[in-house]
């Protein structure tokens, strides 16, 4: 998927955890093989060219396309699974794959905590230790090496943190209404919620919207909090984000 994944697993019997890690890594590679738009032989590339039907693809293709359609509906089209008129579900696949990998690891008997980090977007399950929640640092896009916030998973068994912005990869987010790079007042949007699949989608859509529309929209999503940073170094956040800081 063009990025690095890392895993932190607490508890569980060593061999069982290693087997689950092997399964999780294999699932990530499989997702890349099936969904990559850079591989001409991938099922998604062949689907886009009309060489396959959805029914002829692996079952996870239909699952991801259904999730993407829901993301498009909820975001009023600000999240899109097309690029230059061609099917491109990459905006949802990474979060979906990382969340699925975290579920595989969390299901191992005795495992008490799981963190799966895919290119800076994180899915958390359980906790790293007794009375010790997972904590995720959010990079400051305007001050390299600094943190804009620290998100705590205290009080919840499942939390995801996803960021979209221009600091790491430049202007790579597309405005689906113009087909060109999104030009807004934002440099980063971090979304916090139970699911990395959705948090990643919402961060991408919110960035394309711009800060004013995005903040209003994010406030209306259930179980979602967000931190928005503008190019003018303004920090805006949803009303409940404070409960997640620490």
Task: Provide keyphrases for this structure.
two-stranded antiparallel sheet, 34% helix, 246 residues, 6 helices, alpha+beta
Describe this structure in words.
By secondary structure, the protein is an alpha+beta fold. It has helices at 14-35, 43-48, 59-74, 90-106, 196-209, 211-219; strands at residues 5-11, 82-83, 86-87, 111-118, 121-126, 135-139, 147-152, 158-165, 174-175, 180-181, 186-193, 225-230, 235-237. A seven-stranded antiparallel β-sheet has the order 1-4-5-8-11-12-13. A two-stranded antiparallel sheet has the order 2-3. Helix 4 (90-106) packs antiparallel against helix 5. It is globular and about 50 Å long. The protein starts with a strand and ends in a 9-residue tail after the last strand.
The number of helices is: 6
Let me know the largest β-sheet.
7 strands, antiparallel
Distance between the termini: 31 Å
- Radius of gyration (CA) equals 18 Å
What does the secondary structure layout of this molecule look like, with pairings?
Layout: E1 5-11, H1 14-35, H2 43-48, H3 59-74, E2 82-83, E3 86-87, H4 90-106, E4 111-118, E5 121-126, E6 135-139, E7 147-152, E8 158-165, E9 174-175, E10 180-181, E11 186-193, H5 196-209, H6 211-219, E12 225-230, E13 235-237
Helix pairs in contact: 1-4, 4-5, 5-6
Give a quick summary of the entry.
The chain is an alpha+beta fold. It has helices at residues 14-35, 43-48, 59-74, 90-106, 196-209, 211-219; strands spanning 5-11, 82-83, 86-87, 111-118, 121-126, 135-139, 147-152, 158-165, 174-175, 180-181, 186-193, 225-230, 235-237. A hairpin with a 4-residue loop joins strand 12 (225-230) and strand 13 (235-237).
């Amino acid at each position: 998927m063009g990025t690095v994944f890392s895993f932190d697993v607490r508890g569980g019997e060593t061999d069982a955890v290693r087997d689950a890690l092997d399964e999780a890594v294999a699932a990530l590679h499989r997702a890349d093989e099936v969904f990559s738009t850079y591989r001409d032989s991938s099922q998604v590339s062949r689907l886009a060219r009309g060489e396959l039907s959805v029914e002829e693809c692996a079952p996870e293709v239909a699952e991801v396309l259904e999730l993407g359609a829901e993301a498009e509906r909820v975001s009023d089209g600000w999240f899109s699974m097309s690029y230059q008129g061609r099917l491109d579900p990459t905006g949802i696949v990474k979060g979906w794959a990382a969340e699925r990998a975290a579920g595989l690891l969390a299901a191992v008997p005795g495992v008490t905590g799981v963190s799966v980090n895919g290119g800076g977007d994180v899915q958390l399950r359980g906790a790293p230790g007794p009375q010790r929640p997972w904590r995720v640092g959010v990079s400051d896009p305007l001050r390299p090496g600094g943190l804009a916030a620290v998100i705590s998973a205290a009080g919840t068994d499942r939390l995801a943190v996803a960021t979209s912005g221009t600091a790491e990869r430049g202007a790579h987010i597309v405005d689906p209404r113009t087909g060109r790079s999104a030009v807004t007042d934002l440099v980063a949007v971090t979304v916090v919620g139970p699911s990395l699949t959705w948090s990643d989608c919402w961060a991408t859509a919110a960035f394309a919207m711009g800060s004013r529309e995005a903040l209003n929209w994010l406030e209306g999503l259930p179980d979602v909090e967000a931190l928005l940073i503008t190019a003018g170094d303004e920090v805006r956040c949803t009303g409940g984000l404070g409960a997640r800081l620490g």
